[in-house]
Each structure stands twice: as structure tokens, then as C-alpha cells.
Design goal:
267 residues, paralog of FGE (formylglycine-generating enzyme), 4-stranded antiparallel beta sheet, 4 helices, globular
């Protein structure tokens, strides 16, 4: 019997089903032959962060966003090679339909610039606020599917630091082919798990002065731009790292086999 999972949301005032008609019927946009498929994420408001979470997830604050486009899936090794003519992934054995990894923030900016030139559209990374809004997809749970991590819905690692684990539906010790798990209610795959994802934002220790309009939070302070936010957890991290509000810090010049990205652009 096919499992149906309901997740009740506070953004749109209704309950969503993972893999539902809403997700399956999400309109897709593809701007060029080499461009990733995009999903239009609807405008809305939500409460970002978690008051009972870690200190860097506080204070909770309301964010109101315009609609935007977000990559339906993480950028794959094949999509990266087609644009950049390189194969950087440490998890290359996973195959071309697995997420590209081991690309630093600056290299991602090169990819986005080339994709923009090919398509005539301005591609970018999602802001941290956009990312969390899209990952939650209208839910207020720790995870889009509920309040406990589950290998039925994401690829992640063991409870011992930095080790992958294959168990149940999560059949991959390392990265998994994109789309191997159900999409969320916005029609987005692998927002939690597989690889953590670069965002546009500089990392700040809390949300005390965070933006409220969904735009990226950046800084002109010397050295600040070298530390950016990554979101979503990864194949070698524990279940707690996949929480929708969990924030992590990464150095822009340091690639990681646990970090990839998905594209975004404004309407």
C-alpha cells in the first residue's frame, strides 16, 4: 500500500501531502537546454527560525516573501559538467544524476554567471529565508514530514560524526540520485538531506537583525563574505542536522563532499 504523509502548514492555512497533487502539478520552468528545471514557489509569510532551537536559530521572526523560482532538484553532476566542463565531485561514483559536490561558493557563482549568460535570465543562490520557506513548504514541524528524522524521506548519515549510512529506503551510503525521495508540497526534492546547500547569505550568529523581506542578509564588513550559510544537512550528518531550521556555516573557498546547491531566480 502506498504511504501518504500529511503535513499541516501555517503559511497557507491547510494540510499538505508529500507527493500530493499540489506537488505533482507544480508548474515547471526551464529557461534553456542546459538549465535546471525550476518550480515557482508561491508568495507568502512564515515564522523563520525556532525559539526552542539552537541559539543561532533565534529569535523567531516573521518573513514575507514574493514568489520566486527555485531549482526542482539539486544541481547534478551532469548539469555541472555540461556548463563548466569539469567533474569535481568526490562522490563521482554515484553517477551523473547525483548532486554535484565539492564545489565552493565562488565556483558556484561562476556556474550561475554562465547559466545566466546562456539563458538570458539572472540566476542566483536562494537567500537563507527563501531556502527555509521552501524547505518547510507550509509546515511548522522539525522536518517537513514530522518531528522525527526518517530514512523514508531523506538520505542522511549515522549518529556517529561524518559517516554515511544505508538503511531502509535510504539505500545510499554516500549521495543519492536526485529525486530518490518524495517531493515536498511545493514540488521540491531533497531539500533535506543528500547534500547541504549553499545560500547567498553571510553567516551571522543569530537573527537579531535579520531581514524581514526574504532578501539575502549580506555584509560589507572585512572578511564577512568568506563565511556563508549552508542548509539542509547531508549524507554524512545525523538526523538532527536535517531539521528545517538548522543552520550551518561554511567557508566560501573550501569545497566539501557534503555540500552542493540548487539554483534560484526572481520572477
Amino acid at each position: 500500500m502506498k504511504k501518504i504523509l500529511m503535513a499541516c502548514g501555517f503559511v497557507l492555512g491547510s494540510c499538505f501531502t508529500l507527493g500530493s497533487a499540489l506537488a505533482q502539478g507544480a508548474p515547471l520552468q526551464k529557461d534553456c537546454e542546459l538549465c535546471p528545471e525550476l518550480v515557482q514557489v508561491p508568495a507568502g509569510s512564515y515564522t523563520m527560525g525556532r525559539q526552542d532551537g539552537l541559539s543561532n536559530e533565534r529569535p523567531e521572526h516573521k518573513v514575507t516573501l514574493n514568489a520566486f523560482y527555485l531549482g526542482r532538484m539539486e544541481v547534478t553532476q551532469a548539469q555541472w559538467k555540461a556548463v563548466m566542463n569539469s567533474t569535481p565531485s568526490a562522490n563521482g561514483a554515484c553517477g551523473p544524476q547525483c548532486p554535484v559536490d565539492s564545489v565552493n561558493w565562488d565556483e558556484v557563482q561562476e556556474y550561475l554567471a554562465k547559466l545566466s549568460a546562456l539563458s538570458g535570465k539572472t540566476y542566483r543562490l536562494p537567500s537563507e529565508a527563501e531556502w527555509e520557506y521552501a524547505a518547510r513548504a507550509g509546515t511548522s514541524n522539525l522536518y517537513v514530514w514530522g518531528d522525527m528524522p526518517s530514512r523514508e524521506y531523506a538520505n542522511y548519515g549515522s549518529e556517529t560524526c561524518c559517516e554515511g549510512l544505508a538503511e531502509g529506503r535510504d539505500a545510499w551510503v554516500h549521495t543519492a540520485p536526485v529525486g530518490s525521495f518524495p517531493p515536498n508540497a511545493f514540488g521540491l526534492f531533497d531539500m533535506l538531506g543528500n547534500v547541504a546547500e549553499w545560500t547567498q547569505d553571510v553567516f551571522y550568529k543569530n537573527y537579531m537583525f535579520a531581514t524581514k523581506d526574504g532578501s539575502a542578509w549580506v555584509s560589507d564588513a572585512p572578511g564577512a563574505a568568506f563565511s556563508r550559510v549552508v542548509r539542509g544537512g547531508a549524507w554524512n550528518q545525523d538526523g538532527a542536522s536535517l531539521r528545517a531550521t538548522k543552520r550551518a556555516q561554511a567557508i566560501t573557498t573550501e569545497p566539501s563532499d557534503a555540500i552542493g546547491f540548487r539554483v534560484a531566480r526572481s520572477l
